[in-house]
Amino acid sequence: MAVIETHIDRHSSDFVENKQYFQQLIEQLNLNIQQVHQGGGENAIAKHRKRNKLLVRERIQLLCDPDTPFLELSPLAAWNMYNNDAPAAGIVTGIGLVEGKNV
Which Gene3D superfamilies match (predicted)? Predict the structure, then answer.
């Protein structure tokens, strides 16, 4: 089988420009996800706290095995829709380890 060799010049102007561009995209993605993780905003969080309720991601963290990751599947669902009043389209779906099994 033939081997395809790639030679990347990490100092070329194209590479540097592309790297900077994609780094900006990653930073924006992280900011958007942080905004989603705030849920419905301070008022919604205060309402839950007043009722002694956990936020959805707090409940998921308690359900999953300690020190294991949770892969949230669609945190940006409904992004830029409904004035962003429905973070993650109002649901959280994902995959996590519970009692050693992926669920």
Answer: 2-enoyl-CoA Hydratase, Chain A, domain 1 (3.90.226.10)
